[in-house]
Input
Amino acid sequence: MSINILAIESSCDDTSAAIISDGSVLSNIVANQIVHQKYGGVVPEVASRAHQGSIIPVVEAALQEAGLKASELSAIAFTRGPGLIGSLIVGVSFAKAMALSLDLPIIEVNHMRAHVLAHFAEAPYPSFPFLCLTVSGGHTQIVLVRDYFDMEVLGNTLDDAAGEAFDKTGKLLGLNYPAGPIIDNLAKTGKPVFSFPHPKVKDYHFSFSGLKTSILYFLKKSIKNEPDFIQNNLNDICASVQKTIVDILIKELVKAAEHTGIKQIAVAGGVSANSELREVLQQTGKEKAWSTFIPKFEYCTDNAAMIGITAYQKFQKGDFSQQDITPVARWKV
Ligand code: KG4
Ligand code: ZN
Output
């Protein structure tokens, strides 16, 4: 009999449900909450309410696309954290209630581990041990992955995450939220003619708040001399900021690879959708004889398939959660 897992992800501003059957993704439905755009960032209370509105249709769509009935499920998995508590509560409560009504076991999943294990959604898979650069709106980490359940965070961001650096720069430039994909697009027709300083931090660690401040001062100074500076140079500014962020990320990743001797290199999280990061990673990989792993776009950003892939590993170990489980806003890898 197949192991069919319904997985639910609701840690931030995407409501997602997926069906994983014997470790293969049968469906992966994501409802993005565009409502946050007008606020320039995710508003937790609004996110929580939007999850409530979309969770049932998203779960129904996941079952339908997979061609499965709820009665054919073996377990229900959910993101327990880290994330916005009001958002997590919706997914956790829904998963628990549905499991209770169907008499199914539940499986809690750590969102950051799931980003790493998203690499097992589709072949080719990295082999253990591998290094994973996880770059999202909330996290920037270099993780040493020894096994599905044995991960060590080698480096972290000390302040802003890489995605936040893109989003906050976007705000300074008057772009919509989330600005990462917009900057990526604008940078395609720009040149990295402006340079910004790199942070001075310990090996494998990151810091992006100084970059944000230096961009702010750079823009203020430039606008003083040329009031339409942003409009006249938007593509070049985007290309310059993007190059700086990508260079900072790759520099630490190269150090971690050289110091550990690991040549299986993966990238995960929303920012791994960035076209320059993907290109530079592949180029660097060729130079350093790495095997590089970049998931398909739908497995880079927040999605329930990665929750289900992680849960499948836990299911095989019989690692289930109790019904009295509660979400956690902070939870280390
Ligand atoms: O992993 P994710 O979907 O959500 C979490 O933060 O967990 O990541 C979202 C982040 C946002 O900051 C967004 O601006 C960024 O990923 N992002 C990008 C791109 N696509 C999404 N950043 C740069 N280039 C992109 N193409
Ligand atoms: Zn995420």
The mean pLDDT is 96. The longest strand covers residues 24-32. Residues 4-116+302-317 form a domain with the Nucleotidyltransferase; domain 5 fold (CATH 3.30.420.40). The two ends are 32 Å apart (CA to CA).
